[in-house]
Write a structure and sequence with these properties.
The protein is α+β, with helices and mostly antiparallel strands. It is built from three helices and four strands.
Length: 142
């Protein structure tokens, strides 16, 4: 009886994971999945999609690494931020604080979608601020 419930739980978790991975791909963030027997790891490259004149190399971006336990989303993932590019320190702490809020708010639900979409929103908002301040600086110099 226990093995049947574990099988159903595993099947249910896999279906949720697959659905969530498809949704993250629809957000336009490149992903890479690594699987092992006890967990799966998801790498998501997050960069603003806002149309700006900022060259791609100067844009704010990072790679989010989610290490998800076998029964994810029942259990929350470990999240790490790596390969930060043009990333203000305060933005990293804001995003990590938001991830903790999501972990506490979405217990037993999907975590990756709200975390990726929050990070994407915060990065785009920051990039828009940078673009606006650059435009203001340019107009002062005229």
């Amino acid at each position: 009886m226990n093995s049947i419930s574990l099988e159903k739980l595993g099947s249910f978790c896999k279906a949720l994971r697959d659905s969530e991975l498809r949704t993250v791909a629809l957000l336009g963030c490149p992903i890479k999945v690594r699987k092992s027997r006890h967990f799966f790891q998801l790498e998501v490259f997050v960069r603003a999609h806002v149309e700006t004149e900022i060259p791609t190399d100067d844009r704010i971006s990072c790679k989010l690494i989610f290490k998800c336990p076998k029964f994810y989303p029942r259990d929350a993932p470990e999240v790490h931020m790596r390969f930060k590019k043009n990333f203000p320190d305060y933005l990293e702490s804001e995003i990590l604080w938001e991830f903790e809020r999501v972990k506490n708010s979405y217990r037993g639900s999907q975590y990756i979608i709200p975390m990726v979409s929050s990070a994407l929103y915060m990065i785009e908002r920051e990039e828009q601020k940078c673009t606006k301040s650059a435009v203001k600086d340019e107009s002062r110099n005229l």
